[in-house]
Every structure is written in C-alpha cells, then in structure tokens.
Specification:
This protein is an alpha+beta fold and 201 residues long. The chain contains 3 helices and 11 strands, in the order H-H-E-E-E-H-E-E-E-E-E-E-E-E.
Length: 201
C-alpha cells in the first residue's frame, strides 16, 4: 500500500550486514547488502527499525517486522553496459556505484561527463576499485542531436543528496563508455513472487 509505505530499514544494513563485507557507516556494496537480506530472511520496515545515522552496538532485526525479502541477487558483469540497459528496461531500477570525483558536487543539469576542458581529461576514474558512491539507475535516454553535434546517450540516476541537488535529486551520466565505473558494480535483487492471498509462489 503506497499510501502508508515508509520504506525499509537502512539501519538494519548498518548494524547487521558486517559478515557480508559491509562496514556499517563506513560503507559497503549494494550486492552484498542484497545477499545479507536474502540469507537473513528479510529486511525490517523503516517504522520498526528506525535509521540512527550511526553504527549500532547490536543487530535488532526481527522476522516479525520484515517488509521485504530477497530470493536471489543478480550481479551484472563488470563493464557490461548492454546488460545494465537491458536490466533497467525490463526489470526496473538497478543499484549502481561510481567514482564521485571533485567536480561532481557542482552538477546541476544536463549530461555529466566528468570532462575538464582545461586539462583535456576525464576527472573521474573508470575502474571497479575506484567506485565510492552507490546510487540507483532508473532509466536511460539520449539527447537530441544538433546539426553538428551527435546525440549523447545517458543514464537517468537517482542520487541520495536530497531534491535540492541536481535535477530534483536526479542526474544524467554519459552512457556507453563505463564512465566513472558506472557499470562495474551494478546489481539488483530478485524478490519472491506472491499470490493474491499473500503466499509465496
């Protein structure tokens, strides 16, 4: 029921997912968070396990408060943008990570390409070891080309820096060249299917 939905417990991941190579407030990877949820049996609702923005001393998750479950985790092969586009088109939002370089905080609109005209170089790094920020790819498209400028393909990405940043919390990033490592750590959870009576099928 979207009218009463308040979300899932980020704090559970902070407090409980350490055995899956996650490090609480010091970070982790979405794919490993999904694997924790799968193996733990589920993730609590936000209402039952409120976010504290600090590392908890113990895991307080309860199966009585689960708001979602994960059956499997699909990891897109590093750098496989065709698979990433296919997943966004056919499955839905996909967790991605990328290298936030110093120029990214100044983004306001348009297609981000992390290119510095003064140095004639791309500012961000495009390898899996440099990604440092998890976001969600929710769509893709391309700009309208002009007479002397070809269209630019891009991903539509939801950031977590509030709606006052970027384009109401979203940004476009150039697609097709694994810019900033955008397709190096992409994954999504496969959730159980339920029938009309709410039973797992």
């Amino acid at each position: 029921d979207c009218t009463t939905w308040t979300g899932l417990a980020e704090q559970q991941l902070v407090d409980c997912a350490g055995d899956f190579n996650n490090f609480g407030c010091k970070g982790g990877l979405p794919s490993q968070a999904f694997e924790y949820i799968r193996d733990a049996g589920g993730i609590d609702t936000e209402d039952s396990y409120a976010y504290k923005a600090t590392d908890g001393k113990s895991c307080l998750a309860s199966p009585y408060n689960y708001g979602a479950k994960v059956s499997q985790v699909y990891n897109i092969s590093s750098g496989d943008e065709d698979d990433l586009v296919r997943a966004v088109a056919l499955v839905g939002p996909v967790s991605v990570a990328f290298d936030v370089a110093h120029d990214f905080r100044f983004y306001s609109h348009g297609v981000y390409d992390s290119f510095n005209a003064t140095s004639n170089q791309t500012v961000c790094k495009s390898d899996s070891q440099s990604v440092n920020h998890a976001v969600v790819a929710v769509g893709y498209g391309e700009t309208e080309g002009l007479d002397d400028t070809p269209p630019v393909p891009f991903y539509i990405v939801r950031n977590s820096w509030s709606t006052s940043w970027g384009m109401e919390g979203y940004f476009w990033i150039k697609r097709g060249e694994n810019l900033c490592g955008i397709s190096d750590c992409a994954s999504f959870p496969i959730v159980p299917q339920y029938n009309d009576e709410g039973k797992n099928v």
